[in-house]
Amino acid sequence: MAPMDASARPRHTLLLYRSSERADDALRSMCSRALEGGSLVTVVVLAREEDARNGCCDTRSVLWNRVGKVADSVAREAVARGADEIVLADPRGSGLGRLELRRLRRSSAVPVRG
Q1: The model's pTM
Q2: Which segments of the chain does DSSP mark as H helices, in order?
Q3: Measured between alpha carbons, how far is 53 from 56 in angstroms, rounded to an integer?
Q4: Lowest-pLDDT choice from 82-86, 91-95, 97-101
Q5: 45 forms bridges with which residues in the sheet?
Q6: Which of the following CATH numbers is that of domain 10-113: 3.40.50.620, 3.30.70.380, 3.30.1300.10, 3.40.50.720?
């Protein structure tokens, strides 16, 4: 059996998701197209993690999944999973701040859409 040509592999999208009506619509649409076209979708959700020393309701949380720069982590995850693109389900509600979003678009080896 001959090896699979790289151009014949299914397209793989890493979808950065945070719950909102717009993001839910984008997720449904992306998964529907993937199912019809035989492509792959990996959904990544960012979650802020509170420092236990601050109590349960402290809004000063600065930890993101025990990583330093969130944009770099998302970009690394896309490369590690072999994604062809990073799609922001809802760019305004992605969980990334303006500077983090700019950093992701500027430094990612994988193209960013949305």
Answers
A1: 0.76
A2: 21-37, 70-80, 98-107
A3: 9
A4: 91-95
A5: 17
A6: 3.40.50.620
